[in-house]
Amino acid sequence: MQCSCNSSVGHFSSPYWSRAVLFPDWAYKPAWSPGSRQVQLWHFLLELLGCGEGGAIGWGGEWGEFVIRDPERLARLWGERKGKPHMNYDKLSRALRYYYNKRILHKTKGKRFTYKFNFSKLILVNYPGYLPPSSHQNPSDSFTVFKKFQKLNNDSVTKSYLVSWNHPLPHTFLLPKPLPVPQPLHGPIPFIPAVARPEVGQREPRESGLNANGWLHRSSADWDVNPHISWNLSDYKYLNVNDKNNEKEIIFPNTYLTLSH
DNA sequence: CCCGGAAGGA
DNA sequence: TCCTTCCGGG
What CATH number corresponds to the domain at position A121? Predict the structure, then answer.
């Protein structure tokens, strides 16, 4: 059975989380789709965890910890998603072990089928409306903040960060880990509602303003004026950071934007 | 069950 | 690059 994650996942009492969904559609589009990226295993796991696909995988006792309850079933679901009919847990778990070096996951030792997300690697990019005034005045502060975050985590190699935005709490990125978010033992990870991917070829409105979801939205044309501003904007979900060449690459749904720093 | 090396595909 | 496949070893 497929888990579409379209249903409401209002496991939180806070209204901020009640309409949370995990990832935008573009994150799951097949590789040939323009502007989309192949779904990655950890996206897939979070999707299943988030929508309570209870049979194959579920949250564990600690924050970020999850237990694979039915390894072969999980492998079959993953194989279906990736078009790999011969996927099994042996192969899936090898992929999970590759995440150790990337610091996306680590193993909970001694607990069978139990892994843990390194949510300290999760960056919450604040909702522009909640940004501190200084960030409004100087958008490049977001880069500074990111560098601080990187230093805080002793991290110069991590390539993939899960980025969420529209976080309802102010000053989130200035707070130390662990993340200042509700910590459900079970239920969805409180990622932030996804902004719908713009249709390919569709012109975005030139003006900044609120989009259909009521969030601040700016046109991609704004990036041309000052690309640094993009950190504070909507429409991106995953951020890849490459320290080599002193460049930072932000991957937008339909755009690869390289920022020189 | 886990772990990582090696090779290779798309 | 991110796995997929295979595998020897603990």
Answer: 1.10.10.10
